[in-house]
């Protein structure tokens, strides 16, 4: 009889503790979903400022739901020099990090072409999106772009930026120091759209990976 009483007391104690814990667990789950929903809402607001699908060169409208601070455009079997480019996006003052800036980028393959396969996007396979974090950071891995086959223009990486308050717009394309095709006009105008210097001096790291830094200043 004593054992039965003790077992009943233990059961009631456990049941009481479980009942107290349930609201806490529900609250935690709610917070998790709220955070996810918030990120989704931010991206939805940004994409309202994306240019239409028919606009040449724009791509913010196609950003996936899971866009993050980093993207990888290439794989280890791709021909070309592997490169990592990172940077910080700043507000118009050039000092304050700009969180939640959507970056779209694309570039040619190792032969200087964009999309060539049937059904492939016109910007080709080397295209992607990034959403800056609280410190304005972004980074991507890819292969180094090369000039178009006719060698009329320097190798470049196209980039657009979009925010919750600013319409999608071009910034200066990334260029690579040492490219003989960089024009005097490109050098004199470097930084007019996007601030800082878009002509990157790449440095070689372990394993032959090339590194470059492209900081960005948003327009007022």
Question: Can you describe what's shown?
Answer:
The chain has 220 residues and is an alpha/beta fold. It contains two helices and twelve strands; from the N terminus they run αββββββββαββββ. Strands 1, 2, 5, 10, 11 and 12 form a six-stranded mixed beta sheet that branches. A four-stranded antiparallel beta sheet has the order 4-3-6-7, with helices on one face. A two-stranded parallel sheet has the order 8-9.
**Helix percentage:** 10-25%
Largest sheet: 6 strands, mixed
From the spread of the alpha carbons, the general shape counts as globular
Radius of gyration (CA) equals 24 Å
Indicate the low-confidence ranges by residue numbers. 1-8, 11-37
Distance between the termini: 80 Å
**Strand-pairing-aware structural class:** alpha/beta
Number of beta strands: 12
Compute the number of helices.
Answer: 2
> Topology as H/E string?
HEEEEEEEEHEEEE
Q: Mean pLDDT across all residues, rounded? A: 86
Approximately how much beta-strand content do the residues carry? 15-25%
């Amino acid at each position: 009889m004593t054992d039965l009483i003790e077992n009943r007391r233990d059961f009631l104690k456990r049941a009481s503790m479980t009942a107290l814990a349930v609201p806490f667990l529900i609250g935690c789950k709610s917070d998790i979903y709220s955070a996810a929903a918030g990120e989704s809402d931010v991206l939805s607001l940004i994409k309202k400022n994306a240019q239409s699908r028919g606009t040449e060169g724009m791509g913010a409208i196609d950003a996936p739901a899971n866009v993050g601070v980093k993207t990888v455009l290439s794989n280890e079997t791709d021909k070309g020099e592997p490169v990592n480019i990172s940077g910080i996006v700043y507000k118009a003052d050039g000092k304050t990090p700009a969180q939640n800036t959507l970056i779209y980028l694309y570039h040619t393959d190792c032969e200087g072409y964009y999309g060539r396969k049937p059904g492939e996007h016109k910007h080709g396979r080397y295209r992607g999106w990034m959403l800056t974090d609280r410190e304005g950071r972004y980074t991507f891995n890819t292969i180094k772009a090369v000039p178009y086959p006719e060698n009329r223009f320097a190798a470049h990486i196209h980039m657009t930026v979009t925010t919750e308050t600013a319409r999608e717009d071009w910034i200066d394309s990334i260029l690579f120091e040492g490219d003989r095709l960089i024009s005097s006009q490109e050098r004199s105008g470097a930084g007019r759209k996007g601030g800082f210097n878009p002509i990157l001096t790449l440095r070689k790291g372990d394993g032959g990976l090339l590194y470059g830094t492209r900081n960005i200043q948003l327009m007022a």
